[in-house]
Amino acid sequence: MTLDPRLAVLLTPDRQSVLFATKGVIAMALALYLSMLLQLDRPYWALISAVFLQVRPETGLVIEKGFCQIGGTLVGGAMGLLILAWLLPYPALAIGALTLWIGLNAGASAWVRQANFIYGFAMAGITATLVVVLAIADPANTSSQGIFHIANARVSEIILGAVCATLVSSLLWPVRVSSLLKEHARTALNQTLSYLELELDPAGTHAKRHYQVDTLLQGIFALSDDSSAVLYEGSHGPGRARAATLICHKTLSLVARIRVIGRLMRNHDDLLTPALRDLLDALRTAFQRMRETTSAEQAMKEAQALRQQLREARGEQAEDAPPLQRRFFQVSQNLTSDLILALEANRALHFSHEVQLRPQGLKPYRDLQIAAAVGLRSALVFAIAAGLWVGTASPMAIMLMIMPVMFTILFARLPEPDQVLKRATFSSVLAAPVALFFTLPLLALSNGDFPLLILILGAPLFVGLLAISKRLTLPLGLGFCTPYIILVQPGNAMDFDVARAASNGLAITAGIAIAFLMFRLITPPNGPGLRRRLIRETATDLTLMGTTQPGNINEEGFNARMADRLRWLTICDKALPEAQRHFTDLGLTGLNLGQVSLWIQSRLRTDAPPALIDSAHHWQLALAAAYQACSRGKVDEDFRQQSEKLKLDMEDAGNLAQRDRELIAGALERIALTFERMAFRLTEAQQNRGVTA
Fold it and tell me: What is the pTM of this model?
């Protein structure tokens, strides 16, 4: 009988998971010991801090998260003191200010990509909540000295947990981010080669290509997001980070270029000359060999052999070869060059070679409506919990304002956050009986012996950490460990109050359930409005490429902007029926148009007279307008007219060789065909939707 994968994580853990759980228990034991030694009020917050830092065990990621946690804690503590200094006599206003602060931090977290930075925003909101709510809940300590003591204790506990987790991660069985980046890079390159091969596969389907692009983008983002943490792992860190970023950029360029060739093959078979058919066969065969090899060196040899083969084939073209054929040979050569650069960057990751290029990191897409949805969700969860606290005056309601709010911020960028919270709710229910019927009764008999305390407390935490060690069971592990620690509340003055633990368990589970409902009720926009904004911003970038002003965009910068837009367009597509999922294609078309237009502009503006520069500028404006028009299912005839005018102006300018003019003419023809094809597909989808309705 095959064991369920989730049970297998707990019942048959691998060595990596056991080491991860062992390090986590050691980090929490150290944090608890020092907290109790320093007589901190609530040592269990140090344990919770250590748990969250262990979610990603790689040394660089733990150090980066530690810095983010400490920074967020200090900012949150300062904000908590500021709110109390101004609004302590007005508790309702203080709670309102906290609600606003949490909403702002949650909204700001939607504007960053890395999970560690998101965690920093979460800590800024939670620390302020702890300082303000615990001060209001304890009127006897509302003097300036008492308030400062509360803030100092909360900040000290959280920072102590972060420091302990960082030290243990760095000193005991360290796992390096550099190893993780190598794995991410290998995955991203393999997925890229699979996509290159799929685009040229006559039997490939639209659904398969969409799925492969979505998977590929996830691999690129994993590589990009984790590359920032490798900076903390020695002198080779910056070079490895640049290599990882270069792989991301070249992968995006490869996706854009191969789609040009794939679309020609699928939609314009009548335009395929014998030379182009031979080209397609050569590319398909080479990509298959590279994908099947297990050696990076062999893949590099295959890519270099392909480049040489393309050079020879390009030189053997007939003098009267059509411009479109010449352009596609140029695209194929550029594609092979990008592939070789990506493989070179991968080699730099493995052998610590210095990468001279300094590519821009991928930029997060920042949308006010998305940020507002994330901020409103977290603020509502906090407001509901605060209302229950004020209405019932029950200490257990305080727990409603802590973990659920943190989860709404941390899980907001996950693909299915509601399902993650659903699993966390299930495991939080399990935490209560374990704490009530196992841990607390045994601890009551331990007579304050610290080794026995760790043994009893650590056994359930070890199981929870095993779950955290794998992405499949991570929500279950987090949903168990954090409520379990809060229910037990280990420290110097444990009360072993079963009624308190039971009520807190009920509050935490109810809070996570409320957060789950909020994720179902308030979802980030993924409808027509977001799609229009994504297309419009892409068109704006295309417009900027036609100017010589300092604000113009290069290929690297355009790739960096487009990456997260593509991710959001895939999210938009998933919300639509299968027949209407064309917006990922539109995003990829925009990515390719940016690269092609940059190449065209670089050729046109070389020693160009003012008339040609002006014509190139108007052509770029027409390109951006035609892109937006095709996204609405329309063909902008002005683009064809501007393209014809540009061809005439190139002839008159006399600054371009015949070969360059033919390549540009082939690119203009290919772009026009792309617009017509995309407009036809979208119009057809709209008509089918109308018939179905």
Answer: 0.87
